[in-house]
């Protein structure tokens, strides 16, 4: 089932392609995902000892979800209880076992700072720009944006530049549209802005992923487990929306392992590219180059603990 919003060039296009299946809530960790991204046998608990600030700009946060440690930067009422896009993203990064659900994300228990966008029937580019402006005041280490727009906004670009200039890495969805158009902020050619594409479990490009020359890395975007509207269960989701927080988690790990001072957004991007595995793919009849995220290989790019 594809769920998305495309209204006009002036609004945000949700990079949201969710496939939902009920899953046993006794799942303690996303084992299949860990194998896929090569994170097995890495002691991720060491990353909780570092003061790394992870931000998420999205909609649909369940602030009191028992599996999440959320610090909401603003207070926006959730209008649609079934649209928990932000909760899904947060769960992939930071979910930890609770008394109702044993599911854990990639860095269980890490605090996430959230900015909830106002949402009625659409989200404006100006709302995303304002969200980033507010988030910049908190000087995050990394900000996850699983949203995109076809409009190249100068104001949005300026806030992206400001974020990167103060050391924040921006990780953004490339798009869920099977074309080679540019969607922003992922397509801004700014060092430290990481554009994420999605692949399936066979390492093929996900059917509905966007492909363009601005995509930096690719990772699993098919059947990724995360939290659901029911706190006692988890579900499978697909799309670049769920691929993006996987990369955000790796960026947070790099910041913790390499040190904030020695890991500028440009350097983080270079480490991601160096650690990824290059694969030539077929897309719409053309051979295209992709780089598949590899956690362990990437984390070897700087000194520190594993």
Q: How many domains, as an integer? A: 1
CATH homologous superfamily name?
Peptidase S8/S53 domain
Number of DSSP-assigned strands: 14
For the record, give the distance between the C-alpha atoms at the N and C termini, rounded to a whole number.
39 Å
CATH architecture, please?
Answer: 3-Layer(aba) Sandwich
Rough outline: globular
Low-confidence stretches: 1-11, 15-29
Helices and strands, in order, run as EEHEEHEHEEHEEEEEHHEEH
Number of helices: 7
Helicity, as a percent range: 10-25%
Instruction: Give the integer mean of the pLDDT values.
Output: 83
Q: In order across it, which strands form the biggest sheet?
A: 4-5-3-6-8-9-10
Radius of gyration: 17 Å
CATH class: Alpha Beta
Here the CATH topology equals: Rossmann fold
Description:
- The protein is globular and about 45 Å long.
- The model is unreliable at 1-11 and 15-29 (pLDDT under 50).
- α2 packs parallel to α5 and α3 (125-136) runs parallel beside α4 (154-165).
- It has a single domain, classed as Peptidase S8/S53 domain (Rossmann fold, 3-Layer(aba) Sandwich), CATH 3.40.50.
- The chain has 7 helices and 14 strands.
- The strands form 4 sheets. The chain has a 7-stranded parallel β-sheet, sandwiched between helices. A 3-stranded antiparallel β-sheet has the order 2-12-11.
- β4 (70-72), α2 and β5 form a beta-alpha-beta unit.
- The chain is α/β, with parallel strands linked by helices.
Layout: helices, strands, pairs:
Blueprint: E1 13-14, E2 22-23, H1 31-37, E3 54-58, E4 70-72, H2 85-94, E5 112-116, H3 125-136, E6 142-145, E7 147-148, H4 154-165, E8 169-173, E9 193-199, E10 217-220, E11 224-227, E12 234-237, H5 240-258, H6 265-275, E13 277-283, E14 286-292, H7 295-299
Parallel strand pairs: 3-5, 3-6, 4-5, 6-8, 8-9, 9-10
Antiparallel strand pairs: 1-7, 2-12, 11-12, 13-14
Helix pairs in contact: 2-5, 3-4
């Amino acid at each position: 089932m594809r769920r998305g919003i495309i209204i006009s060039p002036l609004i945000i296009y949700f990079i949201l392609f969710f496939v939902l299946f009920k899953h046993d809530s006794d799942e303690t960790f996303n084992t299949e995902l860990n194998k896929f991204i090569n994170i097995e046998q890495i002691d991720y608990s060491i990353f909780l000892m570092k003061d790394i600030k992870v931000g998420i700009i999205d909609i649909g946060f369940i602030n009191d979800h028992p599996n999440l440690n959320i610090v909401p930067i603003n207070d926006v009422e959730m209008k649609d209880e079934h649209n928990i896009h932000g909760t899904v993203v947060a769960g992939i990064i930071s979910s930890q076992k609770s008394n109702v659900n044993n599911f854990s994300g990639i860095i269980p228990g890490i605090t996430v700072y959230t900015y909830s966008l106002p949402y009625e029937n659409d989200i404006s580019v100006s709302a995303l720009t304002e969200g980033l402006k507010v988030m910049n005041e908190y000087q995050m280490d990394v900000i996850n944006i699983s949203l995109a727009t076809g409009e190249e906004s100068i104001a949005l670009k300026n806030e992206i530049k400001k974020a990167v200039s103060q050391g924040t890495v921006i990780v953004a969805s490339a798009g869920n549209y099977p074309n080679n158009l540019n969607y922003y902020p992922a397509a801004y050619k700014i060092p430290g802005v990481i554009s994420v594409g999605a692949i399936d479990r066979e390492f093929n490009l996900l059917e509905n992923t966007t492909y363009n020359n601005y995509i930096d890395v690719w990772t699993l975007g098919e059947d990724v487990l995360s939290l659901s509207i029911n706190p006692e269960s988890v579900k499978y989701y697909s799309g670049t929306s769920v691929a993006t927080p996987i990369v955000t988690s790796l960026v947070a790990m790099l910041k913790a392992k390499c040190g904030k001072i020695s890991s500028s957004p440009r350097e983080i991007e270079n480490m991601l590219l160096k650690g990824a595995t290059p694969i030539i793919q077929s897309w719409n009849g053309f051979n295209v180059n992709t780089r598949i995220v590899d956690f362990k290989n990437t984390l070897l790019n700087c000194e520190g603990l594993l």
